[in-house]
Amino acid sequence: MLETVWRSADRDGSRLLRSAAALAAAVARLPVSLRATAAQDGLDLLAVLAGLKPLCLAGRGGAFDAEFRAALVAAAAAASLPVLEAAPWEPQAAPGVLPDWYRAATAQRCAKMRVLYLCRDVGIRDAAAALSAQGRVAAADEAALLGYPLCCVVQHHRQALGLEQLTIAMTARVAQGDPDRMARLIEAGVEPLPASAEEWRDYRRLTAIAPAPATSVNMCAACAGDDASPAAALARSHAALAAATAYPLRN
Ligand SMILES: [Zn+2]
Questions:
Q1: Category of 246 on φ-ψ map: left (φ > 0), alpha (ψ -120 to 50) or beta
Q2: d(CA 209, CA 72)
Q3: How close is the Cα of 234 to the center of ligand 1, in Å?
Q4: What are the tens digits of pLDDT across the range 5-62?
Q5: What's the CA-to-centroid distance between 151 and ligand 1, angstroms?
Q6: What pLDDT is recorded for position 1?
């Protein structure tokens, strides 16, 4: 039932239904290869509109279709949601985990990138802007703004930092240890491929994910194995929202 997922000012849910229809139509106009990511971005925005999460982060996947981006912005504008275009967040690392030259190079790269933050209110927008300015963010801050289970974000950060350390080692191999070349490769976003069986094993382990259905959450191991976990509950609430608004989960 729509009422069970609807908690905001749009009392009869008519605006939510219109937004769901407009976003679904915008997804359907996309090339097939872009639809899955866009459909999830659209559902994340509907979840913000329905009061299920504070912020929808869209456009992470690289290719971001201009018309679909406009559809997201239009749906946010119809509900007077603040929209921020700013740098993506990266996981905070404890001192010594990432070398200074690498942190500087990734900060340079991220400062040039833009993702879309569609926010519940101006307080959330300001918090998102502060994190974008900060660059590397704590798991607790990211989990709070995105409405993700903290356990899942903590594991995702640990895995992402492990992948960054592997990338540093592979970049050093490709650049034959030349520090200037290593920094240039990282700043340009070049990701060397694993060369040895050991690198491939680490790469597969560090890039393995368990998506929670109907959400953008990468589930932690505990959540993935438990139907009563916070990630499983979130997946059910998002699936219920999609069902209540006739928003297609698969395109
Ligand atoms: Zn979890």
A1: left
A2: 26
A3: 10
A4: 555 557 678 899 999 999 999 999 999 999 999 999 999 999 999 999 999 999 876 6
A5: 4
A6: 47
Residues near ion ligand 1 (CB < 5 Å) are 149, 151-152, 220, 223, 231
| pLDDT tens, residue by residue, 92-150 | 999 999 999 999 999 999 999 999 999 999 999 999 999 999 999 999 999 999 999 99
Q: Tokens 């650049």 belong to which residue?
A: 175
Q: What single-letter DSSP state applies at residue 29?
A: T
Alpha carbons 122 and 158: distance in angstroms, whole number: 30
Cα 233 to ligand 1 centroid, rounded to whole Å:
11
User: Residue type at 122?
Assistant: V
Q: Compute CA distances 191 → 166, 178, 188, whole Å.
A: 10, 16, 9
Q: Cα(226) to centroid of ligand 1, in Å? A: 9
CA 178/CA 148 separation, integer angstroms: 40
